[in-house]
């Protein structure tokens, strides 16, 4: 699917998505978001890990700015024209865009972003949609939407707050400043920072490590962790008990 600027592959339990528009630092388009959502919906049941990366020197420079005013060759409607549409239609269109990111939170998979160079705006939010982020020293994040008069609306606000806290998340978004790799590691945006030549090997090692435990246990654990911040402690205890009951029944059926 290189005509849309994406490459997809599935190899057993591992799926890969490569942003492939290096000539524009992997700038994103709504067509790419729709293709991402379609890929997420079509994943085989035995896929357990999804790795996202960018071709060339950058992960993604964010939204292709030519699309804001419609000055593009993508056949896309100018994004500013959304402001003239009825409210419900705007919600539906934005939800369609968000679906290209939200599938990466699915408890059935662990998603890993391999980030080098720029991860700006939609690129930052795509990395935030992933469960784990491996960075190279030249990687740097920026939530540029407010500088364009827009808000981050591709699902990045919640994971950003969960990772760094409200106050720091607000500061990062309101100033639109760069968060470079060393700081990203310090504040929890990056799981690990490795030299560029070690990026692929580190992602493979992480993938192999994630695949080692039983799939059901990882799936249930991810679901527990995703919901933990929104549940009272007593409800989290109940959720843990229910998840463990399901696991024990599955294990009994498999090995008993």
Automatic annotation (TrEMBL):
Annotated family: Belongs to the enoyl-CoA hydratase/isomerase family.
Record PROSITE patterns: ENOYL_COA_HYDRATASE (PS00166)
Name the UniProt record assigns to this protein: Enoyl-CoA hydratase/isomerase family protein
Source organism of this protein record: Kribbella yunnanensis
Domain of life: Bacteria
């Amino acid at each position: 699917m290189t005509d849309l600027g994406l490459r997809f592959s599935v190899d057993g339990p591992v799926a890969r998505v490569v942003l492939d528009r290096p000539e524009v630092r992997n700038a994103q388009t709504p067509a790419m978001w729709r293709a991402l959502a379609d890929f997420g919906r079509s994943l085989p049941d035995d896929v357990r890990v999804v790795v996202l990366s960018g071709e060339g020197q950058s992960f993604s420079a964010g939204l292709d700015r030519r699309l804001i005013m419609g000055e593009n060759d993508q056949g896309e409607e100018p994004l500013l024209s959304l402001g003239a549409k009825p409210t419900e239609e705007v919600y539906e269109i934005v939800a369609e865009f968000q679906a290209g990111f939200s599938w990466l939170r699915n408890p059935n998979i662990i998603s890993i972003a391999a980030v080098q160079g720029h991860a700006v705006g939609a690129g930052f939010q795509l990395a935030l949609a992933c469960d784990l982020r491996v960075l190279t020293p030249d990687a740097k994040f920026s939530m540029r939407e407010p500088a364009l008069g827009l808000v981050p609306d591709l699902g990045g606000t919640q994971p950003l707050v969960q990772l760094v806290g409200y106050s720091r998340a607000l500061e990062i978004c309101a100033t639109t400043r760069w968060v470079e790799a060393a700081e990203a590691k310090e504040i929890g945006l990056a799981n690990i920072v490795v030299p560029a030549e070690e990026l692929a090997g580190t992602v493979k090692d992480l993938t192999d490590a994630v695949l080692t435990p039983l799939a059901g246990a990882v799936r249930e654990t991810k679901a527990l962790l995703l919901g933990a911040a929104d549940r009272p402690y007593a409800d989290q205890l109940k959720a843990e008990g229910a998840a463990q009951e399901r696991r024990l029944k599955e294990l009994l059926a498999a090995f008993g």
